[in-house]
Structure formats: C-alpha cells, structure tokens
Amino acid sequence: MDSRRADQIADALEELIFTGRFGDGDRLDEIRLATEFDVSRTPIREALQRLVASGLAAQIPRRGVFVRQPGPVELVEMFETMAEIEAVCGRLAAIRISDGALEELDAVNRRSRLSVAENDTDGYYRENEQFHRLIYQQSGNGFLAREAQRLQHRLKPYRRIQLRLRGRLQQSMAEHLAIVAALRSGEADRAASILREHVAVQGEKFHHLMAYLKTQAPSGI
Amino acid sequence: MDSRRADQIADALEELIFTGRFGDGDRLDEIRLATEFDVSRTPIREALQRLVASGLAAQIPRRGVFVRQPGPVELVEMFETMAEIEAVCGRLAAIRISDGALEELDAVNRRSRLSVAENDTDGYYRENEQFHRLIYQQSGNGFLAREAQRLQHRLKPYRRIQLRLRGRLQQSMAEHLAIVAALRSGEADRAASILREHVAVQGEKFHHLMAYLKTQAPSGI
DNA sequence: GTCAAGATTCGTGTATACAAGAAGCATCGT
DNA sequence: ACGATGCTTCTTGTATACACGAATCTTGAC
C-alpha cells in the first residue's frame, strides 16, 4: 500500500515509543537509526519529522530530536481533552445518528460482551476502538471525527492498559450500553455526559494503575 | 530564532496557501519551489511534509504534494469543531480562571473597543486572537489549549475575513463582553454556550460572505 | 588541581547525485 | 484513423557528500 519507506519507519518508531522501548528524553540518533533500519538518513529524517508533528518527539535545532513521553500532568490533560471531544461527538451524534449506525453499535456491543465473558482485554479493546470510532463518525462532522480519531490513536496505549483493572471491563461494557441507549433516544446531553465520564474515568483508572505499578516495579510500561 | 531554513519555507508556503496564491489542487513542484526559494530540494521537501501534516496539502506517493483548500462543507465542519472546542475551553475556564486573567481579558476588550471605534478590522482581529487565546489558556489544560490554538491558526484567514461584514465588529465586541461576564460570575454553561454561538456565527457569516463574493467576482480569496 | 580557551570530533542541516516509477509522446500495427 | 505498446522524459524517493554549529576533550595557565 504505502511504498514510501519513510512512512513505514515512522510507524515503526511510533510503535517503539508506544511500547516504551524509547524512554522520555532519549535522543533519536539519525545515524544509528539509519544503520538499524538499513536505510539512509533521508527517510529517517522524514520519519522523525512526522513524530515531531504528532507530538511524540520534540526537535531542538542542531541538537536532534528527542522522545517526549507525556508526564502525569499531560496525560491527565490529554484524557480530559479526549473526554470533552468525545462528549461533543456524542452530543452531535445523538441528533444525527442513523438507524444503521445504531445497529452497528449494537453489533459491536454484542461482540464486546463476548470478549468480556472471556476476559479478553485485547479483543475488547479492538471492539471498544470501533465503538468509539463509530460515534465519531456519527457526529456528522468529518473534520471533528478525524481529530477525535487522531487523539484516540495518541491515547491508545493508555486507554488500553487500564482495561486490565479488575472489574473495568464490565463497567466499561455497561457504560457502552448506556451510551447507545442515550443515542437511540436522542438524549444529546445525556449521551455527552455519559461519554465524558466514560473517558474521564479511563484517565483516572490509568492514573491509579500507574501509581499501583510504581509501587510494584519501577519499570516502564 | 529558528535557523532552520525548512521551517521558514514551511511558514512562507503556508502564508502563500492562506492568501490564496496557491489554489486548491495546485501541485507544489519541488524543483520549482527550490529554485524560487534559492535552496535545494531537501528543505523544500521537509517544508512540504509539514504542510501535509497540518492538513494544508495532500501527498500522493510518487506523484507529489497538492494544495488542499477546504471546500464549503469542510469549512463548516471546521467552524463547528472550533465552536465546540472553544465552548469546552470556556466551560472549563469559567471554573478555573484567575482574577489576573479576567483583568487581562478586560484590558484586551478595552483595546478591542478602540479598534471597533476606528473600524480597524486588522487591529481588532489581533486583539480578538489574544482574547480567545487567553480563554484557551485559562481552561487550565495546556494540551487542550494547544489544540485549540492549532485549530485557531488553521481557521485564521476565515475568521479574519468575516469581520469585514457590516456590523460584525460591534456584534463580536458585544459577545466578548458577555463572555467575560459569564466567566467572571463562573457561569460555566453560559460561557460555553455564548462562546459556541460566537464562533459558530463566524462560520455562518463567513459562509454568507463567500456566497456574496461569488456573486460579485469569481476570484479566490 | 582547577578553570579556561582552543582544537577536534561528532551530528545535524543542506546540497547534490543516483534510482525508480509515472506521465507524455511517438511509432507501429490493425 | 485509432489504439496500443515501447521509449523518453520528468519528478519523486533515496543515498551520499559537504557545511556548519555544538559538544567534548585536551592543553596550558594560574
């Protein structure tokens, strides 16, 4: 699909940052990466620029680009922003959603329930992602939907991990059902506030999880 | 400040796109731009990638990058998104704003009033920009503030032009005063809804202006 | 021994050279 | 005459070479 080497490298680097292989402040050495990816510096530089544009890294002129993992404060801010944007999507979707999309949401929730039964967090997260994406799209605003998806992608590793907390899967599932109910009945404000809480609570849960992990092992994600 | 040639070029190109010197669908020829900016293709390519990342241009592999001016539909979507995000900022700011910031907003509004008196749309827009930026910052969420500012920057040319409509300056001014009043009294929902309308109406006004200009002259902005 | 200044080295930023795919054009066949 | 196929040319994508600034190391002075 994408024959540009630089784009593949950008995705690979993003994954490496997400999985914590590159820690905060690490310099992304062009030459080193070039040899590792067996490619010249040119595509590496293009990939790095993409990372900088996404906010995953910061560039200091003549010094290089450095990984920029969000700290606790920024993570809270990102989750709050995501919560608000999802709330907006939900409020608009409650007015504009199509019957077909409601059916799709039901279908996603049926599949989600199976994942919950099997305690399959990865499977659940996949369905969860689709669930939210559908709502973005049903906001009837393509631009907003793209922005929401961009943010979702950025928060993906953090949204994912908090599902491992005991009871979180069931709670999330229940919230999804409530959201669909509100959308179906066209209760815009109710859909918005449930969605806002649904996402905000993810931030809090993630926060708790981080605090907990810190007491257990001082390693990264 | 920024010694990187590529960044300067990116800004210059952005300006050229904003001012309509490059129309929708125009190919941004690397070689041509390189000779025009008297520079090699390398910084040009980096600049183009930045444009693509901002959404101002689209890249087709092995074909080049093409200017992507938003059409009427996308503009409406962008204004709606901006309106919702500003509403969120306003709601949060109503709770979190500092006394000092309220003073600053008053000061900005005083300066704005002078621009209104002189019918100085450019001056008014500068103050207007600052007014909104202050509210973003007072949302107490740095991440949200940056996102809002990014969107504001993207919409700048369109927000600016609609101020030329007769009576718009006075109307905008009145709305700003109402917004500060709501923020000062901590009426979160009221601040949000005024801000939402304040921005949404800009989209509508811009739309009207475009429709009007289209009847007058078939040129670009 | 410590600090400062110069030299050296290393890495980014830019220019240029090379590779490869896409578009346009000409020629050949039907 | 029209269409298809191969060639040519042009442009992007990648590699390499060069320039310049930053950081470090060394050396000398106090």
From TrEMBL, chains A, B:
Keywords: DNA-binding, Transcription, Transcription regulation
HTH gntR-type domain location: 3-70
MF GO annotations: DNA binding; DNA-binding transcription factor activity
UniProt xrefs under SMART domains: FCD, HTH_GNTR
Keyword Transcription: yes
Domain of life where this protein originates: Bacteria
Entry keyword Transcription regulation: yes
Name assigned to this protein: Transcriptional regulator, GntR family
Organism of this sequence: Sedimentitalea nanhaiensis
